[in-house]
Specification:
The two termini are 30 Å apart. Helix 8 crosses helix 11 (292-307). The longest helix is centred in the middle third of the chain and has 16 residues, at 165-180. By secondary structure, the protein is of the alpha/beta class. 35% of the residues lie in helices and 24% in strands. Strands 5-6-7-3-8-9 form a six-stranded mixed β-sheet, sandwiched between helices. The protein binds adenosine-5'-triphosphate (ATP). Adenosine-5'-triphosphate is lined by residues 16, 19, 21, 39, 41-47, 322, 324. One of its GO terms (cellular component) is plasma membrane.
C-alpha cells in the first residue's frame, strides 16, 4: 500500500442477516483527493461509510483507514477524522455557541468557537438554540463540528441536503479550500452536479456492487454519451443522414432531433455540413456532454441486460429489484432528502467524539 493511500477497501462484503448490502467492493482513496461515493438508494454507500468510520464490522474482505482497522484502531483514528453524518442528532435546547463549546472539549487542539462559526457562516447565529435553526443551518453546524478537530480525513454524508444555493456554494467552496490545504474527503451525495464539481474520482454503487470507478472523465467516457439536440422543420428532419442515428420527436410544430454519440465532434461536423448543403439553419443547436445523471439512468438497463440470457456484465447485483433502489427514487430524492431516521446512527457522533481520549 502506497504511503499516499488513506483508505484501502478490498473485496468488502457486509451482510445484514440474509441481506447483502455491500458485495465485493474494492477501491482506494489517496491523500488530498475528493472521492465521491455515489449510488442509487439502498446501493450500500452508507454501509460502506459505516465500515470506514468504524461503526460496523465487515462480514468479509477488508477496509483500512491510514493503514489501521477502523474498528480496532478507532481510538487512534478518531482525532484524525471528521465525520458529518446525514443527521448528527444535536441537543435541541443548547445554543449554537454551547454546542460548539461542548464539542470542543473532545479535541486536543480544536479550532476556536469564532473560527468554526466563521468557517461555516454561523457567526450571527451563535446564541440561537439548535431547535430554532433551519435545516440548512443545522447542516452548516454539522460541518463546523466535523471540522473542529482539524481532521486529515473528512467524511461528508450528503453534506448540503437542505441548504439553500448560497449555503451549498459556500460549503463546497470551504471544502475545496481545505482540500487545497491537504484535506482528504470522502463524499456521498445525491446532488450529482456537486460530485461533478468537487470530486477528483467517483465510485458509483448500485445494489451493493461497484459499477463505475475512476476520474469523472473516465466514468463519463465509459458510459456518458454526449447529446446533440436541435429543432428542425419536420420535412428537413426526415432528410437527416441515417448514419447520424438521430432520434426525432414532434415538438412545437416541428421536430426535436437528438443525437447521442461518443464522438460529438465528428457527429457535429457531419450535421453542420448537412445543414449547410441543404440551407437549413440551426439556431437552437446544443451540444451537451454526458453527465453522471446519464450514467445513473443507465444502471437499471444494465441490470436488465445482465438478466437476459447471454447479455450484459457478469456478477451485477446482490439480489432482485427492491422498491427502495429505483433510480427514480434517487433522482427525486435529490430535493430535500432528510436522514435515515436510524436512532443508532444518530447518536454515533457523540460516541465517536468521546473515544478521542481527549
Ligand atoms: N440496519 C439495517 N438492517 C437491515 N438492512 C439494512 C440496514 N441498513 C441498511 N440496510 C439495507 O442495506 C442496503 C444498503 O443500505 P445503505 O443504507 O447502505 O444504502 P445507501 O446507498 O446509503 O442508500 P441511501 O442513498 O438511500 O441512503 C439497503 O437494501 C438497506 O435496506
Amino acid at each position: 500500500m502506497s504511503t499516499d493511500t488513506v483508505i484501502q477497501v478490498d473485496d468488502l462484503r457486509v451482510d445484514y442477516g440474509a441481506t447483502t448490502a455491500v458485495d465485493g467492493v474494492s477501491f482506494s482513496v489517496r491523500r488530498g483527493e475528493v472521492f465521491a461515493l455515489l449510488g442509487t438508494n439502498g446501493a450500500g454507500k452508507t454501509t460502506t461509510l459505516d465500515v470506514l468510520e468504524g461503526y460496523r464490522e465487515a462480514t468479509a474482505g477488508s477496509a483500512t483507514v491510514f493503514g489501521l482497522d477502523p474498528v480496532s484502531g478507532r481510538d487512534r483514528l478518531a482525532p484524525r477524522l471528521g465525520i458529518m453524518l446525514q443527521d448528527a442528532g444535536f441537543f435541541e435546547t443548547l445554543t449554537v455557541r454551547q454546542t460548539v463549546t461542548a464539542w470542543r472539549r473532545f479535541y486536543h487542539r480544536p479550532r476556536s468557537l469564532e473560527e468554526t462559526l466563521g468557517l461555516v457562516g454561523l457567526g450571527h447565529r451563535a446564541d440561537t438554540r439548535v431547535a430554532s435553526l433551519s435545516g440548512g443551518e443545522r447542516r452548516r453546524l454539522d460541518l463546523g463540528l466535523a471540522l473542529l478537530g482539524h481532521p486529515e480525513l473528512l467524511f461528508l454524508d450528503e453534506p448540503t441536503t437542505g441548504m439553500d444555493p448560497e449555503g451549498r456554494h459556500q460549503s463546497l467552496e470551504l471544502v475545496s479550500q481545505l482540500v487545497r490545504e491537504g484535506l482528504t474527503v470522502v463524499l456521498t451525495t445525491h446532488y450529482l452536479e456537486e460530485a461533478e464539481q468537487l470530486a477528483d474520482r467517483v465510485a458509483i454503487m448500485h445494489r451493493g456492487t461497484l459499477r463505475r470507478l475512476g476520474t469523472l472523465e473516465q466514468v463519463l467516457a465509459e458510459s456518458g454519451d454526449s447529446r446533440i439536440t436541435v429543432g428542425l422543420p419536420t420535412e428537413a428532419a426526415a432528410l437527416l443522414p441515417t448514419d447520424l442515428h438521430a432520434t426525432v420527436a414532434p415538438r412545437h410544430g416541428g421536430s426535436h432531433v437528438e443525437i447521442r454519440t461518443g464522438d460529438p465532434e465528428s457527429a457535429l461536423r457531419r450535421l453542420l455540413a448537412w445543414g449547410e448543403a441543404h440551407g437549413i439553419p440551426m439556431p437552437d443547436l446544443e451540444v451537451r456532454r454526458g453527465s453522471l445523471e446519464d450514467v445513473f439512468l443507465a444502471l437499471p438497463d444494465e441490470d436488465d441486460a445482465a438478466r437476459m440470457p447471454g447479455g450484459g456484465r457478469a456478477g451485477h447485483g446482490s439480489g432482485g429489484a427492491r422498491p427502495d433502489d429505483r433510480v427514480g427514487d434517487t433522482l427525486s430524492s435529490r430535493r430535500g432528502r432528510r436522514p435515515s431516521g436510524d436512532p443508532e446512527r444518530d447518536v454515533r457522533v457523540a460516541a465517536s467524539l468521546t473515544s478521542t481520549g481527549a
